[in-house]
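Exam revision sheet. Question 4 asks you to relate a sequence to its structure. Input first:
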Amino acid sequence: MDKLLKDEGGWIDHGKIVDDLKSKLKGSAFLHSFLEPGRKPTKSYIARGAHDDNRSPQEEYARSLSDELYKVRKAKEQHVIDLQKWAASLPKELNNPKTLERMYFAREAGKIGQLDPHEQALYNQHLKPLFDENDRLFDQVSELDPDMLGPKIQDHIYRITKGDSPERNILNPGESADPIEGTYALATRPRGTMLDRKFVALESPEGRRYVISLNHDGFTLWNNGRPMKVVDPGFEYKNGEQYQLGHRDFTMKEATTPEIEEHARVAGGGKPEYYHNAALSASAANLDLGEIARHLQFLQDLKSNPEFLKHAKKPGEKAPDNYVETRLQNFKGWKMDPQLAYVMDDFARPGINEPAINRLRKLSQAVTKTIFWMPTAHIRNVGEHWFVERGFRWLPGTGGYKSLALDGLKAIKSVVTQGELQKQLRESGAGTIYGGVISRHALDNLARGFGEAVEKNPSKWDPIARQFGVVQLTL
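Answer key, structure tokens:
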């Protein structure tokens, strides 16, 4: 299997695949249920055809719910595209990492007024509105779920770590909106900008500051890379409050990026590194906060939807024996018809997440991606369908050739520019492809627009991504 997935030769022997699968999974219950005839039908909300008149009300509503959840996913696609357009509209001065670095440090220190007048005007006109929008989204999320976010931070700046792993570099998060690889899950827990900050500070009455990292049983105090563990299970960081360490009182404060980079260390002993880019930080926070706000609002509205409540029971309510719980943590304790639970499970954790099936998923992706390595058969297939679909419009005098020239160019422009029509299609739940491709490496592309050189490990699918204009920055 591993050899197959790493083979980029562009051809595949389907008979060999089946033989290899049978060899690797011989005797497994999964193989029997998946490959052998007469297996028990899988329960699923998509088990019946689209025109099956025998669908139950639960199945009908499950399909409707799936469509609405899909629209929520597509909303992130549109959000990314809007941010990319906003980034492209910025003046060229904001493509300069040095300028954006000065703005980053000025905002973090609450000293925007100390920027030179030209840079201050650029910040107020172009970046401040996005930071203000982030504050509004923060308040919206906090109202929907008070436990989702930590306390609000004045002049908050989102710290984006550098590194070559998903744990250290949010520009390489390990999730994908690639139409082949699958889609991301609904946000059911804090992540990214919603996570509590690991590094904060203690400040002495004389103004001496110490970076600390929070632990489960206290904190670690850092000084020029040297750690000192302080065990205090009752310690709780609260910005602005006092804390007594030894015989001295300290004030709990937010740590600054330069302090963290100078004094703290991460796993392995390396120094933490961050992107010093105000536009990138504002964009990343906006993307995270917007996503979590949309998801929470949808799920909150769902809990009071009369149609949903016909097939679901709140915690503590008596439910029919066949009702089950969903993996979606926002509905912990709820019980609902299995058809609804299957839909919500898929959006809480996309796909069938069992080890054996995950390996088959990778196989499926590998097979599908060969279309793009040897696209001739696919292009011919599409062309044949297109030729037949035009019907009599190929005949002279039908206006077909004029339509082909004029409407064809409009269609191409609509897709390339991702204009208003594409936005309307996404909002209606259409399965558009190109929007998912160009929004796949959202922060990567934004970082490039702001002049950052982002290092990351190249994917074996990068040649395909480059064909669609999704170019890696530094490999």
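Marking note for examiners. The chain has 17 helices and eight strands.
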